Amino acid sequence: MASSAAEVPPAPLAERIARHQRWTVAALALVTVGAWAWFATRPMMMMPSPPLTALMWFVMMAAMMLPSAAPAILLYGRVAARHRGAVAPSWQFLAGYLLAWGGFSLVATAAQLAATRSGMLDPMSLRASAAVSAALWIAAGIYQLTPLKRACLAQCRAPAPFFARHWRPGRAAALRLGLAHGLFCIGCCGALMALLFVGGAMNLAWAAALAAVVAVEKIVPHGDRIGRALGLAMIGWGAFVLIAP
Fold this sequence. Notes:
Elements: H1 13-41, H2 50-82, H3 90-118, H4 130-144, H5 147-157, H6 159-166, H7 171-194, H8 196-199, H9 204-219, H10 223-243
Helix pairs in contact: 1-2, 2-3, 2-9, 3-7, 4-7, 4-10, 5-7, 9-10
């Protein structure tokens, strides 16, 4: 007698994982491209209200950070595919990660509004004055050389040990794990994000350049060394901007 459809054996584990990863990659690509598209169509000026300004920052952070966070998200998705029921879907890990950057976006919004009111930031280009830009370059460069920066970057560059140390089963645990990874990511890259005010917070090319720096630090072999070299260059450039006529 012919076998029924219910008797067809399930797809091999590797095939199920690959299928899951394809959907995850497609979703990440869609969100990232959509965020960059939204960012590219915004006018280069301050948004008319704090909520819209915060939304701008959140979308911008998603566009800039998701590409470099993709290895961690995909790794979590692979673990989730292997342990259905014990591990939550990867979108819950992603939600926790974006929640962390949502908090950062609120802080960035407050900083932008305060700097604009004080005259340190141009309200149209969202670009800082020369003196403030020099200070941001130097501060970001110094932070690149600190132990805190190295510790946070190490967590971002090696997501597998991070999962091994912090993983717990369950949906709430997935959200907390994503939040923790996002906080380490902020500790790694938050100072670099302050440099958005140097080139203009709505400058698409400048945002893309900073996103590329973040990706190099997190993904490229010896990216941590490259980041320290960039830190020295930032300090030098900031000093030049400060003393230049």
